[in-house]
Design brief:
Layout lengths: L24 H17 L12 H12 L7 H6 L2 E3 L6 E12 L5 E11 L3 E3 L3 H10 L2 E2 L1 H16 L3 E10 H4 L10 E6 L6 H12 L4
Parallel strand pairs: 2-5
Antiparallel strand pairs: 1-4, 2-3, 3-6, 6-7
The protein binds guanosine-5'-triphosphate and zinc ion (ZN).
Enzyme class: hydrolase
EC number: 3.5.4.16
Pathway: Cofactor biosynthesis; 7,8-dihydroneopterin triphosphate biosynthesis; 7,8-dihydroneopterin triphosphate from GTP: step 1/1
């Protein structure tokens, strides 16, 4: 944290984002006013009982769904890096992803599988899903989400390689638009050893195996 409002520094590289005080009641109030207008403009009555608190709920929900802007993924990783003589692949798979596409601000959701090969240091396992969330809880495209997770791990932990695979359903493709209910989008990003076919194949085999 290095600013007057105690808002943690966000990760670099998000064009156009400016820092906000996400939990400020004035901000929630101001967003609620906009959502009240939205309700009116879609033909609803914002004063009917069921909708009275809806603008405020939606405002709080949106602020929560984008709270990743306030988090610094590199700080999270460095907070739990341990020197360890382990040089095989570490895979954390089936990490739930909930994000929102930046085109329609509709959810996309699914799973992320993340692997790295240590180079002297390992990271606390829980930190991997945490950094997935840091980048997912922003307006995103799946490709950038995938690359940001890869780059963050590579630059911070400096392992021998990183592999990230993300599989998601996009509500903007199922609830509206092209209306394809069953299509799943898969993206991947690799560095170092994972650029070699043998390592990549090992990773892909591990994430497709079932424990139970
Ligand atoms: N590459 C990529 N595209 C995405 C993602 N999420 C949503 N989109 C796409 O963003 C595109 C936006 O295209 P536009 O033609 O400007 O928007 P639109 O008229 O609403 O398009 P339709 O969804 O086809 O109705 C659509 O093709 C979406 O499917 C994502 O994570 N990655
Ligand atoms: Zn979309």
């Amino acid at each position: 944290m290095d600013n007057d409002n105690n808002i943690p520094d966000r990760d670099e590289g998000i064009n156009g984002y400016h820092k906000i005080d996400r939990y400020n009641p004035d901000l929630i109030q101001s967003l609620s006013t906009h959502y009240k207008d939205v309700l009116e403009q879609i033909g609803e009555d914002p004063n009917r009982e069921g909708l009275l608190k809806t603008p405020e709920r939606v405002a709080k929900a949106l602020l929560y769904l984008t709270h990743g802007y306030d988090l610094n993924a590199k700080e999270i990783l460095t907070s739990a890096m341990f020197k360890e003589d382990y040089s095989q692949m570490v895979v954390v798979k089936d990490i739930e992803v909930y994000s929102m596409c930046e085109h329609h601000m509709l959810p996309f959701f699914g799973k992320a599988h993340v692997a790295y090969i240590p180079n002297g240091y390992v990271v606390g396992l829980s930190k991997i899903p945490r950094i997935v969330d840091v980048f997912a809880r922003r307006l995103q495209v799946q490709e950038r989400l995938t690359n940001e997770i890869r780059d963050c791990i590579q630059e911070t932990l400096q392992p021998l390689g990183v592999g990230v695979v993300i599989e998601c359903r996009h509500l903007c493709m199922s609830m509206r638009g092209v209306q394809k209910q069953n299509s799943v989008t898969t993206t991947s990003a690799f560095t170092g050893e994972f650029l070699k076919e043998k390592t990549r194949t090992e990773f892909l085999n591990l994430i497709s195996s079932k424990l139970s």
